[in-house]
User: What shape does this take?
Amino acid sequence: MNAIIEVENLNFGYTPQNTILKDISFEVIQGRFLAIAGPNGAGKTTLLNLLCGLLRPKAGSIRIDAAPVESYSVKKLAQKVAVVRQEFVPVFDFTVAQMVSMARTPYLGTFGFETKADKQMINEALEATDTAQFALRPLGSLSGGERQRVFIARALAANSPVLLLDEPTTFLDLKHQVGIYDLLKAAQFEKGKTIVAVTHDINLAAQYCDEILLLGADGNYHIGETKDVLSQEQIEKVFGVRTFVGSLGQEKFFIPLGKFAKDSGQITRKPHNIQQE
Amino acid sequence: MAEFLTAKELAIKVSICLMVLVAVMCLCALVGTQNISFEKVFAGPGQKAGDNIDYEIFIYRLQRVILAALVGAALACSGVVLQAILRNPLADPYILGISSGAGLGVIIATLSGITWTFWSGSPIGLFAFAGALITVWLVWYIGHFTGKSQVTSLLLAGVVINSFFSAIIMFLASIAKSEQVFSTIFWLMGNITEKSFTVLLVSAGCILAGIIVLFALCHRLNVLALGQEEAKGLGVDAARTRIFAFACAAFVTAIAVSLSGLIGFVGLIIPHGVRLTFGPDHRQLLPLSAIIGAGFLVIADTIARIIVAPAQLPVGVITAIAGGPFFLILLAKYSRKVSWSK
Assistant: This one.
């Protein structure tokens, strides 16, 4: 299998003195779903911004589809990589359809009108994310979860092989969190997208992602199959928090335990189908 | 199925608006202190000068009407572009120092007592043009030199330069002779006068070229209005697009300012009005704002010509007096719409 993202000895810091990311190397195989998790300030979003060419590495290299990121023009890179950041309301009242149409910008001609093929891709993306019903409504009139779906529709309409997401489910309720990840998983399976998502939610990562990159605040990192990397010890080491680890069939889940948690790590009342590991 | 703006649909809308504009322009050229009859104007020019006075008055007024249309189109377009690249709905063509720079150029020209002429007219316009472009370059340079968040530092640089130059204008005005100050003040209020067809032709060429270039940037302005990071993610080189759009907008505004002085409100309210009515898609917003801005200024200038006849008001007074309440009505309507949709 081909690696579509290759990161080699990556170093980055915002000032010459400090280095956030030290000697990071990993690759993402085409069609895989990678989560990037870690405590605040570990450099997750920085890493994502490096992958999409918004920042330049201090040392080391990032290759997308076998070519260095810096060798792409802004337009060509956008054709390879679509980015979804946290949802926002734009200054001007663009409609959902207009917002999703913007994904086709790197393909438009001089005066910027969409072709039939462009329109088809936009409509498919709207249908796939169940946002076609809002197509003519201003983005500002939607709820946060609906808006995030629109941004994912935009990323899908770009028709790029790689999808990068920065905390796509922050501020969303449980139903919308799962809904967003369901959409991403569908894009992975049906369209063969390679997905890299920065997330704080290790449970969603455990459930949906093939691999996980755990970035520690100390600069250490672990990458591997999600089920291998995520363990009580590893999470305590990286996040500095004790967790209760349970399993539901094949799925592992992690409940963080604070100072006031009763019975430190022991669950007293067990629902019948949950076993402690 | 979502609906998309097609080139054909846009062409139809633009043609309809253009036809209305031409009708408004002809109507406004017929109106004035001297009554002229439509039939005589339609009959065309006489054998020799003075045969058909009505036709000659019509043509004379038409020069002024065309000038108003050009200036209105330029200011409205420039407003659209600056609001997009600064991501600020309160931006207008003058926000980055064009007004004070042009004003300074004019007062320097007036006070230095130059006697040479330019295109058989006063060279004041030339000084205004140069002053505007130099100041805009200065603001752009300072804005990019000082800060990382370029939009904020650009706006701040614009505000600082504007007030600094205004202070210099005040200083020069206070030490100058009164008749010199009077002509400068009249210019600062925005004033449209008849210009020769040569001047009109050259300025029309420049302004239309500027608008066409800006139109080709419109789909990128849509993306740029979402912010620099988003624009880059969508394949638009934000820095390059911004400087290019800004340079074109500054050029078009500087021409408008050199023709007519400082006419306020057009560049602010026309883009807003059109955006509220037709939506924020810049591919449609820019051409429609140009045409509607042209029509607005033509009507405003006609009112300025006749309201205190035989004297004439500076058109800037009319745009501000009519524009202020109009803007407030739009704002009230807009806030209601937003609260309704949420």
